Amino acid sequence: MSRSSFDEQWEENVYCQGQQLNRWPSEFVVTGAYRYLAGLGASDRELLALDLGCGAGNNSVFLAKCGFKVLGVDGSETALKSARTLADQEGCEIKFVRGDFLNDEIWNDQEYDLVIDRAALTHNTRSVIKRTVAKVAQALRPGGWFVSELFSRDHSDVQFGLDGDDGSYKSFSGGYFQNMSRTFFADRSDIDEIFSEHFDLAALYHQTLEEERSESKAAVWKVIGVVR
Prior knowledge:
Layout: H1 9-14, H2 27-40, E1 47-52, H3 58-65, E2 68-74, H4 77-89, E3 95-98, H5 104-107, E4 112-117, H6 126-139, E5 140-152, E6 162-163, E7 168-170, E8 183-186, H7 188-195, E9 199-211, E10 216-227
Parallel strand pairs: 1-2, 1-4, 2-3, 4-5, 5-8
Antiparallel strand pairs: 5-10, 6-7, 7-8, 9-10
């Protein structure tokens, strides 16, 4: 996926419609960051964090308030405009860049302590996900953490998508993903395939949330990987 291949559905159908412009950080990002900092202990060096698919900047702002120097990356200019506004309102100096996950300018020979992916990478093909995870591993300091969320095969809305033959689905006719782009749904073996080459798993959760009235079920993998 190059920068020019950014799926404009996110711009036109999601962010331009005022959707997913979140203000508060993800619970799992909060948990992951605090666990990383607790294990790190006292440190005088500057801590660097990369927020992949930063959206409206809610998680980037949280990381900045935790003491990280943050780079937030997203393909949507609308989302980045909201992110810059939120950072200004919260008094945080954060660099936000419009770009693609595989764009070399993002990585820029930096060594990150923490990389977060709040269910952004999961909206790609298996190939792009694996290539990006390899780049994350190369960009982290030894012992650095990758906090990532991927949707699970147990998600009930898989049924609305067209099978892309690689674990990803597109052109959803209904459900949560209807106005979004391609989405990858992982099973347990996919998690091993994607992460095990580069990371030891410090934590792995499979979270489901069922809506009783509609009988729909949201399901997601929550991963904390420590780079080797």
